[in-house]
Structure formats: structure tokens, C-alpha cells
Design a protein that fits this description.
The complex is a heterodimer. Chain A is 29% helix and 24% strand. Chain A is of the alpha/beta class. Chain A is globular, with a radius of gyration of 21 Å. Among the domains of chain B are: 177 residues, 2Fe-2S iron-sulphur cluster binding domain, sarcosine oxidase, alpha subunit, N-terminal domain (Ubiquitin-like (UB roll)); 225 residues, FAD/NAD(P)-binding domain; 128 residues, FAD/NAD(P)-binding domain, CATH 3.50.50; 83 residues, BFD-like [2Fe-2S]-binding domain (Arc Repressor Mutant, subunit A, Orthogonal Bundle); 92 residues, Elongation Factor Tu (Ef-tu), domain 3. In chain B, strands 8, 9, 10, 11, 12, 13 and 26 form a seven-stranded mixed β-sheet that branches. In chain B, strands 39-40-41-38-32-42 form a six-stranded mixed β-sheet. A six-stranded antiparallel β-barrel of chain B has the order 43-46-45-44-47-48. In chain B, α15 packs antiparallel against α16. Classes of the chains: A alpha/beta, B alpha+beta. Bound molecules: flavin-adenine dinucleotide.
Chain lengths: 405, 1020
């Protein structure tokens, strides 16, 4: 209890140094976790994480923080389940309660083909040791009494994939916890510092320039941005197969608890869960057009809410308190792009996080840090290399990540 | 009584004796309602809050975290203090909810009652819950988060929706979903000019724009227009220069009524009262909520007349019941005839406090003291009146603390020094039962900001005022940070005139009027800047310390200085959070949760900003404000969703299927028969005699034009420009990456006319895709979606020909009408297109005909087939039949990565064509070893695998793929299926294992179809 009342600063405001070993662009969960594991696992501490807005002001502060490992492909399941395991220990490791609530995750199916898809996922998951199984309306009803499992809805619920270790986390806490971890290990976090150019000499990255005119030297620059990963990569002439789309979500007033599962319906393009504070969080799939606007639209709000009501008809009088949007960098196969770029030394990618990247913060931070420190690409992230698009070796997670995130 | 202050019975009738003219009540009509099980009465026009308050209720809610008693504060729907449950609907604002006879009102977040809430012990241990409490605790065993979370979950939240859920899911006292689903709806409106806010400046803006010929929609959230004129109770003094001098000397509420009538009488004006604009979206789309309806208003020009709201200053126990905001107090008195208390104090830092003092005195409440942190006021004549009434006035003083346990009983005031700090040792206690705060305005710029227009902090006015307005956006009134009726009227006129002037010429009025309007615009604009200048001069004279958050040595120990009443955030939380490093207003908000509660920051944004700026030493302007996101007020999900409308597509034969007792299933938006009798019976009919299936759900497209063949060559992987007239061919559509998107048949009806079928769910997509490419390639090809217009039936089986011969003269012999051919002709007198294709593997015709003949056609087929034992068959039987033939279903046997090679359909790809969608990717794909191949398999034992089961190597050690489809095959006598597996298993006779129900079951790969591999029966 004592520690509770000790006045302690989480981090400092620093002046930028002229040189770092590694500069990370983007202080979201990915950028921060890279810096954290660089320091903690590899003793590389002369690191600066730069962000053009406030700490966690990108998608890490806008996402709905669903954490799960029940992916579709073998590569995906391996990768995301390592992240989930890291998350399970992270509060202790950072000595900061990230409020990780493993309340369980349900993906509903309303059509026969969706049921098949779930079955396939359940079987892949089981085969790879991930706790996941298909359950039927009776059991669904017991788990989520508020859900309409009758045959009255236009698309009645037919089955669900139940993933017990899945859940939600307090996204801001993750950002703050990592940021404090970075600082405690000697790294630096610089909010409100935008990178406007990256210097390259002889196919080797040499540093970055900021909006305030600073020139910083570094032989390793990590692109850990999201929403803008293509524009940042363009600074060094690297084209990414990424299109940016808005993704929106909303939250209601707090209610007494009645729902303790994450409920996702890909058929109805909606997901719903209740936070510890009692609010309902609801979201959808990406907006159908590409855009850099973070503004929210009435149309998407209407559609999220209408679909949520199809699942939970008892919520009609519950009020929406806030809506917002973020920018998602969509790759063709709904998997990220991780690692180095052929022909350009010192430029590392941790991008393409689409709508699903928050849950991957710990694993990609840890593995990208390993790559930077050892100069070898860890096996677990090799399937996500940029060159897979040229080699036609995609890792398709669209079926498991379009709405589930 | 619950939540009530102990009073004798006479005082419970807390209304003025005489109804005042400004009242919204009809005192001749009494209504009864229930509050926590007790019968209460109200007048027609009362809100729940006014009726309860008049009956003596003082505690309206318990706070979120500490369960502190809370009473009315803003009385205008801007704060969270009166949230209650009404007829099972949680979190209703009692202060804006009109009483309806028989309504059931309940308090929330307290147990057992508002007056005695057990959880208020949390308040007593409040110092154990510093900001960020949860982040800093429950980290390590034994009290880890995973163990305590469920307890904490129980304790949070406000409103309870159990009743609603129970009734919606069919378990509650109400009957089914019908009761609550009905009334929500959406409405669409358009306007030349939308005016948001129906106070005096909004009304004048609307009138001027209307005069100029514009169609105007005026939106206001109150039941009656006029804004503060309705409740300020003042006698107006209006400058002739405004053009409205005639209203001078009249009572403000009377003027409000006159103005309201003026706008309502205008023909080109729509008044939306009781309507709250909750969001401004792209291209001037305004989301408005009015009761259970959502209105979408699209306007050319937007006038914001949204005013300003008050917020409480921060001192010890500032959240006690009976501490009101000044305007809230005025509303209660002047709109609802309530006498709020007996002995009041007014605490102020601006001139509106003087008006409140007057209102209280007029209502017969004894004013114990008038306290103002300024040394001089802007309306000395009113101050003099107050002093004349023997009220003690304290200029240069501020309140330090309110006292009382559940109700305020006194306040402690202190002198203020020049820095705005309280002077130690000057404390005085003033006893009272009512405190009114006029401690600051915040401009209601939330909606304005959503247009992308900015607001900046004005050091003199001490408010965020509009700057850099977007085109089509205008502002007026209190929103500009200036609180002066004369200026507001003229600003309103300028806004209305400017908005009209910027409309496209069509919407404007005659030349003559235009000239007149241009002149008035000039005049009023000039006057506004003159008057504004004077107003600002005046402000400089009265300006004194603002004292939003009282500070004095030791004040940081005072832990009940509430900044945010929604989330129970106190001043100390904010300063601690800022110290800890959350010194960016955006992170401060997220860490402390200030501004994130149900009032969305209306009560706390300014005080928290002041605190943050004080701790960091940055100015208010540098500290900035957080982004204002919609909605402006919480909006019911039902209103946003609107009426529930779910399209259902039925084929022209649907009701015949019902008559036949078919089990119906969903296929996308379509309803289809799953099975009629049993799969075995239906299967047998098709394989041994004849079966019929309704395939009207297939997508059908008609493609005509000189370049129709060229278009299809480009979009499909196969070649169709060389297809002979009268022939059909199977076709596959791929995307740029060579991934299979759809399949179907293409039939050439003439040189320039093709008839295409697509899969059931994909027709809209294929249509769009074809139109897109036809346009992109500038081809002479026209695509018409004829799906809804055509019915279709597949007649299949060895007796299919015999059946159809009875009904048509078309020569059906294999010589005249071979497999993959087509004909147009009459069947049963109905004009048809007949395609000889065989999805189920038997002799058969897919017959397309005008949908309106559906039932007749179906009945005729069944009748004619009786002698052959014809049976209708459903989707499930078709699935078995086609699986035996290894016919692929796109989306089931292919996924988001399958190209035609993997799907074992290499024969559909024609590289000799010049170019087509996906060619480059397919050329590359053909060259490399595929990652997976689609194979058939037969299970070794009686096990029936599921679609989606995983496939392993023979020894079970390697995961090699998954099952895409599998069914029991009557032909084979065991389960057969298809699976996507590693390419080394693409070999007749390979042994694999299918993991089903947690056992590894042996199976053998087959590459040929399981049924009639040579396709003899198809061609027979
Ligand atoms: C509404 C919504 C819901 C979502 N739900 C989920 C979910 O439930 N589960 C899940 O796993 N994922 C979810 N996501 C996705 C998830 O938010 C992201 O994938 C994840 O946060 C990415 O983290 P990041 O650190 O890469 O990006 P960010 O947090 O966006 O960090 C990148 C940072 O880079 C900064 N930056 C950009 N350009 C520059 C520059 N030139 N210089 C300096 N800094 C720059 C940005 O300001 C930003 O702060 C959701 C996303 C949204 C929008």
C-alpha cells in the first residue's frame, strides 16, 4: 500500500540527443515494446522513441484492446499465442496493473459456412495447443444470457468459437506501463516530436529529422507507425502493399454488469463487450473506403449499433457516449509486415497492423528487438517478411481477423 | 421519505403560491407517477426532477465511485447528478424527462436507498483510492487482478438494464421484444440553413435567413424556444440599434413567447424543439436526436447559436446536494415554479450571479449573502438593489468549503488575494440551505469543433472562443464568449444574413431584397464590432481573480474538492496525475478519467484544464483542450439504429416449399429449402428417377453489346469470345492476385448476348465487377442484373428427359441437345432458357423462366413427374450429390488464398489470352510449386468427418491441411470429402488422417469424382 502513496514520476521530459543507437518512430504499443525489450533483454539502452502526437495518441490509444490467439493459420496461431502468454505476465513484469481481463472470447456464426470456418479454426487451434472450441446455442445462452439465441433474429446464432483465454486489456495502461519500463531501463520517450525525413547513405540508414528541425543520427531506424506506415516508408523509398482505412468504435454509458464475454459476430460485422467500468464497447470492420480521416461517421455508428441490437435487443435504451476512429494499415492478407527490407540496411519494419495489432505488441517488440540485437530474423516472425508478397507466400488471416481484430 | 430533507408537511409543497407567467406547467392538470415505489404527484409540464424536488426530494443519485449523495446541479441535462431509471430504462436525466402519468422512476447506484447507501463507506475510505489506483494495485499474488476483478466488476456501472434484457430475450414481465422495439425511427431532412440553438440569437439568425428566402431548420433541445429568456426572469433593456428596441421593458419570458411564435409562423421554417444535435459529420450532416427518433439533417450553411453552459467551481464538498448552478436554480424557479429553499447564498465571479440573486429574491427566498471574487461588478445597479434588500455582499471573497453531511448547511468563505488564492485566517461561516454558483461559463463549442473550426482561449473573456471558422459555418451569441443580449441579437442577424448570402443564387430572394440584405449585413456587422469593443473594455474594468479551483495553504489535503462529478475525480487526483507525468491534457484525461464520464466533460473540462495549467506552469492556451467527439449528448442505441428492417429474399416458389413442409434455411439474404423429407429419399429420387430443385437464388446477369465477349474474356480466366452461340461453358473469376472470387456458367445466346449465372451470394459483386471493368476498358457491353426477374429450377435424374418431354416441344435428345448446350423455348407454355448442365451429376436441365410463373411451373413439373416418382430436393441433398461429383463450391472448397491451380481447376485458365484479371499472378503461380492442393478423400471406417476438420500425415506427426467439405456418400457407403492439403498428397491413394472428434481417422486420397468419374450419366 505504501507504494500507492509515494509520489513518483512515470517518466521525464528529455532533450533530444544528437545520436542514438536506435531510433523508433511511433510511441504506440509496438514502438514502446521494441524499446523496452531492446533495453531489458539486450541492454541496448541508447534508444529514443519519437511520436508526433501525445503518448499513445495513435491507434494504441484508440483500439478496443481485444487480446486473443485463436487465429486461422499456423503461422498466425504461433505468433499471437506467444503474445498472449507475454501479456499474461506483463502486469507483474512492468509492475503496473494492465487490467488484463481474460473474460473469454466468443466468435458467433450465423450461417453454415461461418460454422465451418469456426470449426476449422477450432481444429487448427487445438492442434497447436490453443484453448478453443466450437459451442452451440444452449451453451452460448448460458454464457451470455443477454444474447438473443432464439430463432427470432433475422440471422439466428448457430454456433460460436469459444476461446477462454481471450479477453480485453486496458490499452492505455499497456502504453504507459511500457513507456515507464523504457524510461526505467534508460531509454527515452519523446512525445510531440514528428519525424519528417529519414537520412540514408549508401543503402544504409543514418538518422532522422524532426519537425522542429533536429537532426538525429542513428544506424538503425524502426518504422513502428500505424496509419502512416506507407508515408514513413516512402521517406526511404520503400513501397508497402498497404492501404489505409478508417476503423471506428463507440462506447456507451456505464451499466451494471451483465456481459462478461467478448462477443464477436463476423456475419453481422460487429463486436461487443462490457468493461470493468460497466461501459459497453462496440466496434465493426473497417470502413469500405480508404482515407486518412480519423473523424467518425454517422453511418458507421448507426450500423455498429443496429447490428449490436440484433445480438442484444435489450440494449435499445442504452445510450452511446462517445464514438471515435483510427487509421488502419491494411495488408492484402490481414497479417503484419515485420523485419528488414532487402537492399536497405538499418531500416526495420514493424507495420501493417491493420485492425488487429494491439494484441501483438509484446511479441513483435520482443522479436524485433531480438532481430536488431542479433541481426538474425527470429523464426516466429519470418513468415511476415515484406518479401512474402513478391514470393506469393501470404499468411491469410482475413477469415479470422476482419471483424474480430 | 427517501432522499428527502427532513421537513414538515407544509414545506413539502415546494411551489410558489402563484403560477408565474414564465412557467411551463399547467397547474390545472395533475399527474401521478411512482418514485421508488411511492406515489408522487406532478403538474403537467413538470420534469421528473422538478416534481420530485417540489415534493421534498433532495438526493437524486449516488456518485459513481464513492457513492456520495448528489442533488440537482445544472437542471438542464448537462450534468450526471439526476440519472435515474425510468420504466426500466437506465440513466435517464430526471431534469429533462417530462413526467408521464403512471411512469415508474427508480434511483440508481445505491442500496438499500438513496438516503442510506451502504456503499458510501467507500467515501469514508476515499483516501485509499488515489488517481491511478487500479494501475498500481492488484499486481502480485495473492491478490492478483484475475482474482479480484470479478468483485470490482460487480461494484461498477450505473444503470441496470436487467429488466430490459429479460423482456427482450423473452423472460421478463413484459411480453417478448414487441413492446420495446416499435417506436424508434429515422427521418431525413434538408435545409439551406440549419440553425442550432433556439435562444434569442439563434431565433434572429433563423428569421433573417428565412426573410432572405432560405429554407431554414431551427434545432433546439428545449420544449420551448427562447433560451435563457425563458428562465432568467429579467426585464429586458434592449438597445434601439439592434432593431428590436420594441422589446425593451418587457419580461424576458414574454419576449421568448413572441419570438417563438414569429419563427413558428414562418412558412419556410421548420422548428425542431426537444431536439438535440449530437454530431456534425462530413459535408454538414447533422445528427439530431428527438425522443426516439434520429433525424439526419443535411444543410448548406450552419449557424451555431449553441450558447454556453455553467460549471461549478472547485472547493471542499462542492458536490453537496443543494449546491446548484445559477442557471439551474433559475430554471427550477421560473420554469417549474419551485421554491428551492429558504436561505440561499449566491457565489459568483461574473455578472450572471447578480441576476440569480434577483431571481431568488423575487421568488421569496431569503438571500443570506452575495459573494463575488471580483472587486467590481458590471451591473452596479443590481448590486445596489441587493444591498438595499439588506443582503450582505462580499466582493473579493470566494467560497472555501461547503458543510453539511447530506445537505448543505453552511459555507465557509474567505477573502481572495490578487493571485486568486484564499487568504488564510479570513474564514467566515455563512449558514444557509441553498448555494447557487455562477462560477463560470464554458462556450458550447463541442459541435462547432466537429466542423473542423477552431476555438482559442481568450485571456480576457476567459473562455474558448471560435476562430478560423470553416466555410459555411457561422456563430453567434454566448458561444462567442460574450454574454450580452444586444450583441447576441445583432450577431444572430449577421449570422443569418451571411448564411443566406452565401447560398447558391437560386435559393436567394429577389434583387431588391438582396440589396437591402447586403446593407443590413453591413450595418449590423459594423455595430457588432463596435459593441464588442465596448463589452471588452467593460470586462477589463471588472476583471478580478477567477478562482475556479480554490487554493490555499493546505488545500491539497482537502480531498473532497470535486472536479469531475461523473467519475468522482478530485483536485488532488488531477495535480497528482500531472505530477506523475500525465501533463498532456490528452493523457491526463485518459489517466484520471476526467471528462470521460456521462457528462462528457461539460462540468469538469475547464476546472481540470486550470489545474493542469497551474501544475505545469503552462498557459491555458498552451495546455489546450481535448478533441470533442460525437455524440454531444448520450444517444439511445435504438434511435441510432432506427426501425429494424432486415431484407429477406424469397423465390417465386417459396410458399410452395412451405406447403411441402420443407425445412427452410438462410443463404445470405435468401431463404431456401434445406430438406423436404430426408436426404436419403431425395438422393434416391435424383440418382434413380428424377428430382427438382428451386435454384432461383442463383445470380443471373444478362450481358449485351459488341464487346460482351471481350469483357468476359478479360474478367473470367476462360475464353468466351470463341464460344459458339447456343453453348454454355463453366467460368471462374479471379482477383488481381489470382484468387478465386466466383464461378458459374456462361451461355452465349447470340453473337452479342451472353447469359451468366453466379453463385447465390455474389451476384451484386459480380455485377459491379463487370460494370467496373466494362467502364475501365471502355467496352461496348451492358450488364443487367436479372436475378429477381427470373425463376429457375433444375430438373435432374435419369428420368428428367421423360418428364420434360411431356411439357415441351424442344428436342431434348442428346443428339439435338447435348451436355453444355442451351436452347430457348417453351416449357409448360412458359418461355424459358434451358441449359443442359449437371451440377449434381445426372442428365439434367437448369431452366430459367419469368419469376411470376414460379408456382405454376413448379406445380406443373411435380404433377407431370408423378408417374416417375419425382421428388423435390433441398440444398443439403444437393450438397451430397455435388460432392460425389467433386464439384467445387467457391468459398467452401476455396478460401481467401485459393487460386484455380490449388482448386484443381487448372483447365479453366487460358493463358493464350492477351490479358485478363489475375493473369500475372496466375502465370507466377503456375510456375511454382503450389502450397496446397484440393483433393478428394474417402474415410476408411464409418466415421463422418466435419467440414473444417484438420488433416494430418499418416503417422499423425504432421499437420498437412484441412477438410473443406465432407458428407456421408450413399454411393460409396462411407464418408467422402474434399480437403486442402500439402501438395505431396495430391496423389491417388495417398494415405492421410482426419482428426475428427479428437481421434485421428484414416482416409485415402482420390483425385477422380466419387460418382460417375467419366461423366457418362451427365451426357446420357
Ligand atoms: C477502433 C479500433 C479498434 C481496434 N481494435 C483492436 C483490438 O481489439 N485488438 C487489437 O489487437 N487491435 C485492435 N486495433 C488495432 C490496433 O489499434 C493497432 O494495430 C495497434 O495499436 C498498432 O500499434 P502501433 O504501436 O503500431 O500503432 P500506434 O499506436 O498508432 O502507434 C504509432 C504511432 O506512430 C506515430 N507516428 C506516425 N507517423 C509518425 C512520424 N512521422 N513521426 C513520429 N511519429 C509518428 C503516431 O502518432 C502513433 O502514435 C484497433 C484499431 C482501431 C482503430
Amino acid at each position: 500500500m505504501r507504494a500507492l502513496f509515494r509520489k513518483e514520476k512515470m517518466w521525464q521530459r528529455h532533450k533530444l540527443k544528437p545520436r542514438y543507437d536506435v531510433v523508433v518512430i511511433g510511441a504506440g504499443v509496438h514502438g514502446l515494446s521494441i524499446a523496452y525489450y531492446l533495453a531489458k533483454n539486450h541492454e541496448i539502452t541508447n534508444v529514443a522513441v519519437l511520436d508526433k502526437v501525445y503518448l499513445g495518441g495513435g491507434n494504441s490509444g484508440r483500439n478496443t484492446a481485444i487480446i486473443r490467439a485463436n487465429y486461422m493459420t499456423v503461422e498466425g496461431v504461433h505468433f499471437y499465442s506467444e503474445s498472449l502468454k507475454l501479456y499474461e505476465e506483463l502486469s507483474k513484469e512492468l509492475n503496473f496493473n494492465l487490467l488484463f481481463s481474460q473474460i473469454g472470447h466468443l466468435s458467433l456464426a450465423h450461417t453454415d459456412s461461418a460454422v465451418n470456418g469456426l470449426w476449422r479454426r477450432a481444429e487448427v487451434n487445438k492442434a497447436l495447443g490453443v484453448n478453443s472450441r466450437v459451442i452451440w446455442p444452449d451453451e452460448i445462452k448460458r454464457m451470455v444470457p443477454a444474447l438473443d439465441t432464439s430463432d427470432r433474429p433475422r440471422y439466428p446464432v448457430k454456433a460460436a468459437l469459444y476461446h477462454a483465454p481471450g479477453g480485453v486489456i486496458r490499452h492505455d495502461a499497456v502504453v504507459w506501463g511500457y513507456a515507464r519500463g523504457v524510461e526505467r531501463h534508460g531509454g527515452e520517450v519523446h512525445p510531440r516530436t514528428e519525424v519528417i525525413a529519414i537520412d540514408v547513405k549508401d543503402h544504409q540508414v543514418t538518422g532522422v529529422r524532426t519537425d522542429k528541425g533536429e537532426v538525429i543520427r542513428a544506424d538503425c531506424v524502426v518504422n513502428a507507425t500505424s496509419g502512416y506506415c506507407t508515408t514513413v516508408s516512402k521517406m526511404v523509398g520503400v513501397d508497402l502493399p498497404v492501404v489505409t482505412h478508417p476503423l471506428q468504435a463507440c462506447v456507451t454509458e456505464p451499466l451494471k454488469p451483465f456481459l462478461d464475454k467478448v462477443v464477436v459476430s463476423a456475419n453481422l460485422h460487429v463486436y461487443v463487450y462490457q468493461t470493468d467500468r460497466g461501459e459497453l464497447v462496440m466496434g465493426s470492420e473497417i470502413d469500405p473506403y480508404s482515407s486518412y480521416s480519423q473523424g467518425s461517421t454517422l453511418e458507421t455508428l448507426e450500423s455498429i449499433v443496429a447490428h449490436a441490437l440484433e445480438l442484444f435487443p435489450g440494449l435499445r435504451h442504452v445510450r452511446v457516449l462517445r464514438q471515435w476512429g483510427g487509421l488502419c494499415d491494411m495488408t492484402p492478407d490481414y497479417s503484419p509486415i515485420l523485419g528488414e527490407v532487402d537492399g536497405l540496411k538499418g531500416f526495420v519494419l514493424d507495420v501493417g497492423w491493420g485492425t488487429y495489432g494491439f494484441k501483438a505488441g509484446p511479441v513483435s517488440g520482443k522479436r524485433i528487438a531480438e532481430l536488431i540485437a542479433t541481426k538474425r530474423t527470429p523464426d516466429i516472425i519470418r513468415p511476415f517478411r515484406l518479401s512474402r508478397f513478391r514470393e506469393d507466400r501470404l499468411v491469410s488471416e482475413k477469415g479470422a481477423a476482419a471483424v474480430s481484430h | 421519505m427517501e432522499g428527502a430533507r427532513p421537513t414538515n408537511s407544509e414545506e413539502r409543497d415546494g411551489r410558489s403560491k402563484e403560477p408565474s407567467p414564465s412557467e411551463l406547467l399547467d397547474r390545472s392538470k395533475m399527474l401521478n407517477f411512482e418514485f421508488n415505489g411511492r406515489r408522487m404527484s406532478a403538474f403537467e409540464g413538470d420534469t421528473v426532477a422538478s416534481a420530485l424536488y417540489a415534493s421534498g426530494v433532495r438526493i437524486f443519485s449516488r456518485s459513481f465511485k464513492y457513492h456520495r449523495p448528489r442533488g440537482l446541479l445544472c437542471v438542464s441535462g448537462r450534468c450526471p447528478n439526476c440519472l435515474m431509471s425510468v420504466d426500466g430504462v437506465p440513466n435517464v436525466k430526471a431534469c429533462t424527462e417530462r413526467v408521464r402519468a403512471g411512469m415508474k422512476v427508480k434511483s440508481q447506484n445505491c442500496w438499500p436507498s438513496l438516503e442510506h447507501d451502504i456503499f458510501s463507506v467507500i467515501d469514508k475510505i476515499g483516501r485509499f483510492l488515489p488517481v491511478g489506483f487500479y494501475y498500481k494495485t492488484f499486481i502480485n499474488p495473492p491478490i492478483e487482478w484475475s482474482r479480484v476483478e470479478w468483485i470490482i466488476r460487480r461494484l461498477t456501472g450505473l444503470g441496470d438494464i436487467e429488466e430490459e434484457i429479460a423482456s427482450a430475450t423473452g423472460k421478463g414481465p413484459k411480453d417478448g421484444r414487441s413492446i420495446i422495439s416499435s417506436s424508434f425511427e429515422h427521418l431525413n431532412l434538408q435545409a439551406d440553413v440549419a440553425v442550432i440553438g433556439g435562444g434569442p440569437c439563434g431565433i434572429f439568425a433563423a428569421l433573417e435567413a428565412g426573410n432572405a428566402g432560405a429554407r431554414v431548420v431551427l434545432v433546439d433541445d428545449q420544449p420551448a424556444l427562447g433560451g435563457h429568456l425563458r428562465y432568467s426572469g429579467e426585464t429586458l433593456s434592449i438597445d434601439v440599434a439592434t432593431g428590436e428596441g420594441a422589446y425593451s421593458g418587457l419580461k424576458s419570458s414574454a419576449v421568448a413567447s413572441t419570438l417563438e411564435k414569429a419563427v413558428r409562423d414562418r412558412p419556410n421554417m421548420t422548428v425542431l424543439d426537444n431536439s438535440t444535435a449530437f454530431g456534425i459529420y462530413e459535408s454538414n450532416l447533422i445528427g439530431i436526436v428527438r425522443g426516439n427518433s434520429e433525424i439526419r439533417l443535411r444543410a448548406e450553411q450552419l449557424v451555431f447559436a449553441t450558447g454556453a453552459h455553467e460549471f461549478p467551481s472547485v472547493f471542499q464538498n462542492n458536490d453537496l446536494p443543494e449546491v446548484f448552478l445559477g442557471r439551474g436554480m433559475q430554471r427550477l424557479i421560473n420554469l417549474y415554479g419551485v421554491i428551492p429553499g429558504k436561505r440561499a447564498v449566491v457565489v459568483s465571479n461574473n455578472d450572471s450571479g447578480l441576476g440569480v440573486a434577483r431571481t431568488l429574491m423575487d421568488a421569496g427566498v431569503k438571500l443570506e449573502a452575495y459573494i463575488d471574487s471580483r472587486k467590481a461588478v458590471g451591473a452596479p445597479e443590481t448590486l445596489a438593489e441587493i444591498e438595499d434588500a439588506k443582503v450582505q455582499t462580499f466582493l473579493g471573497w470566494a467560497v472555501k468549503e461547503a458543510r453539511g453531511s447530506k445537505h448543505v448547511s453552511s459555507i465557509v468563505i474567505c477573502e481572495v488575494d490578487n493571485e486568486g488564492e484564499l487568504v488564510h485566517g479570513t474564514e467566515r461561516v455563512v449558514s444557509c440551505d441553498l448555494v447557487s454558483l455562477s462560477t463560470g461559463f464554458e462556450t458550447e463549442a463541442w459541435l462547432l469543433n466537429q466542423t473542423g473550426s477552431r476555438t482559442i482561449y481568450d485571456e480576457l473573456l476567459r473562455e474558448f472562443i471560435p476562430r478560423e471558422l470553416k466555410p459555411t459555418v457561422y456563430v453567434c451569441g454566448d458561444l462567442t464568449g460574450i454574454h450580452d443580449l444586444n450583441i447576441a441579437i445583432m450577431q444572430g442577424k449577421v449570422a443569418g444574413l451571411s448564411a443566406a448570402a452565401n447560398l447558391p443564387a437560386m435559393a436567394r430572394s429577389t434583387e431588391l431584397k438582396v440589396e437591402y440584405q447586403r446593407k443590413s449585413l453591413e450595418t449590423y456587422s459594423r455595430l457588432v464590432s463596435q459593441y464588442e469593443g465596448k463589452y471588452r473594455e467593460g470586462m477589463k474594468h471588472t476583471r478580478g481573480p477567477e478562482v475556479l479551483v480554490v487554493e490555499y495553504p493546505g488545500s491539497d489535503k482537502m480531498r473532497k474538492r470535486f472536479v469531475c462529478v461523473c467519475e468522482d475525480v478530485v483536485a488532488k487526483d488531477i495535480s497528482l496525475a500531472t505530477f506523475e507525468g500525465f501533463d498532456d491534457i490528452e493523457t491526463l484525461k485518459r489517466y484520471s478519467t476526467v471528462t470521460m464520464g456521462p457528462c462528457q466533460g461539460k462540468m469538469c473540462s475547464m476546472p481540470s484544464l486550470h489545474l493542469c495549467s497551474r501544475v505545469t506552469g503552462r498557459s491555458i492556451a498552451q495546455t489546450g483542450r481535448t478533441v470533442s467527439r460525437p455524440p454531444f449528448v448520450p444517444v439511445a442505441m435504438g434511435a441510432l439504429a432506427g426501425a429494424e428492417l432486415h431484407p429477406v429474399k424469397l423465390t417465386g416458389i417459396h410458399y410452395k416449399h412451405i406447403e411441402l413442409g420443407a425445412r427452410i434455411m438462410d443463404m445470405g439474404e435468401w431463404k431456401r429449402p434445406h430438406v423436404y423429407t430426408s436426404v436419403e429419399e431425395e438422393y434416391k429420387a435424383v440418382r434413380e428417377s428424377v428430382g427438382v430443385i428451386d435454384v432461383s437464388t442463383l445470380g443471373r446477369l444478362d450481358v449485351k453489346g459488341r464487346d460482351a465477349g471481350k469483357l468476359l474474356d478479360f474478367v473470367y480466366t476462360h475464353i468466351f469470345s470463341t464460344l459458339k452461340v447456343g453453348k454454355s461453358r463453366y467460368g471462374v473469376i479471379c482477383d488481381d492476385a489470382g484468387i478465386v472470387l466466383d464461378d458459374g456458367t456462361v451461355t452465349r445466346l447470340s453473337e452479342t448476348h451472353y447469359f451468366i449465372t453466379t453463385t447465390t451470394g455474389n451476384v451484386e459483386f459480380v455485377e459491379e465487377w463487370l460494370v467496373w471493368w466494362a467502364t475501365a476498358l471502355r467496352l461496348d457491353a451492358y450488364i443487367t442484373n436479372v436475378t429477381a426477374g427470373l425463376g429457375a429450377v433444375n430438373v435432374a435424374g435419369p428420368k428428367a428427359r421423360d418428364l420434360l418431354r411431356k411439357l415441351t416441344t424442344v428436342d431434348l435428345s442428346s443428339g439435338a441437345f447435348p451436355y453444355m448446350n442451351s436452347a430457348e423455348g417453351e416449357v409448360a407454355g412458359v418461355p424459358c432458357i434451358l441449359l443442359r448442365i449437371g451440377f449434381v451429376g445426372e442428365t439434367g436441365w437448369e431452366i430459367h423462366f419469368p419469376a411470376e410463373f414460379g408456382e405454376y411451373f413448379w406445380d406443373t413439373l411435380l404433377e407431370a413427374g408423378k408417374e416417375f416418382g419425382v421428388k423435390p430436393f433441398g440444398v443439403e441433398t444437393q450438397r451430397v450429390l455435388r460432392l460425389e461429383k467433386k464439384h467445387v463450391i467457391v468459398g467452401q472448397d476455396t478460401d481467401a488464398l485459393s487460386n484455380p491451380f490449388e482448386a484443381d481447376m487448372a483447365w479453366t485458365v487460358k493463358f493464350e489470352k492477351e490479358d485478363f484479371v489475375g493473369k500475372a499472378a496466375l502465370v507466377a503461380a503456375e510456375k511454382k510449386e503450389p502450397e496446397r492442393m484440393l483433393v478428394g478423400f474417402v474415410m476408411k471406417d464409418s466415421m463422418v468427418a466435419h467440414d473444417g476438420d484438420q488433416v494430418f500425415s499418416q503417422d499423425g506427426s504432421r499437420h498437412i491441411g484441412f477438410v473443406t467439405s465432407s458428407r456421408f456418400s450413399p454411393k460409396v457407403g462411407r464418408c467422402v470429402g474434399m480437403a486442402l492439403v500439402s501438395p505431396e498428397y495430391y496423389k491417388e491413394g495417398s494415405l492421410i488422417r482426419v482428426k475428427s472428434d479428437d481421434a485421428l481417422n484414416g482416409a485415402e486420397v482420390t483425385l477422380a469424382p466419387f460418382y460417375d468419374p467419366e461423366g457418362k450419366r451427365l451426357r446420357a
